[in-house]
Amino acid sequence: MNTYVSFPSQPVQHNITRQAFFQIAGFPDVLGCVDGTHIRIKTPSEHENVFVNRKGFHSINAQIVCDADLKITNCVIKWPGSKHDSYVLRQSNLWNEFEAGTYPGRLLGDSGYPLRPWLMTPYLNPANNNEERFNSAHIKTRNVVERCIGVLKKRWACLHRGIVMEPDRAAAVAGACVVLHNMAMAWNVPLVEEDANDDGDDRDIPQGQGRIIIGAHWARAQGPMATKGPWQPNTWLLWAPPPAEREVRVCEREVSYSVGKRKQNYG
To answer: Taking 60 as the threshold, does the pLDDT of residue 216 lie above it?
Structure first.
């Protein structure tokens, strides 16, 4: 697994990844973009209610992190559909590693994720030109993960139509699709009728764009919304579903693909 799905861990990899993201819209120090996607599954035989997502169907919420070339560098496929994207990230190894300062860079996520010094989210109500430029660059850069998920589901249609299996087997199939996606990308396997989702904008970066983006984010992170003292788990969480009486993962078995490692813990 770690041969094909691994988060950048070496300085050379960090530099290459950051530079590739910077070329999109001038966002500095980006190591990945994160998003969640729901994979439809058959009605589970146990804990059926926790697999119902906000759209009303049974699913697994899979977390995907990718680089600027649509390669998946981290994924977590173990949580039922009722869990919000922010919850899935907070429970992942990647969250802990970024909180510990392991990586010299940041992730980009949508407004459903919590704002952290290493996790940039868009301004909900931009108040000035700098904040609007921040949002514009953020959207253009973060779009790569939406394109990545689109390519993944187009290449492996079972992820789009649904996997008619119990949650644990469905998670294993989805994990295999992630590995095969990266193999296909590495070997330049063409995707039939791929929609690149490219808006065609000129990628020329305005002078000082990176400094404006970082300045806007830093001022925001240090403003009234910033935490005081040790961070508390609920401080930055925008929304998460209330836990069930018993915490349910995919059939009580953790099947995660996180930072290139697969682990199974039986509860």
So the answer is: no
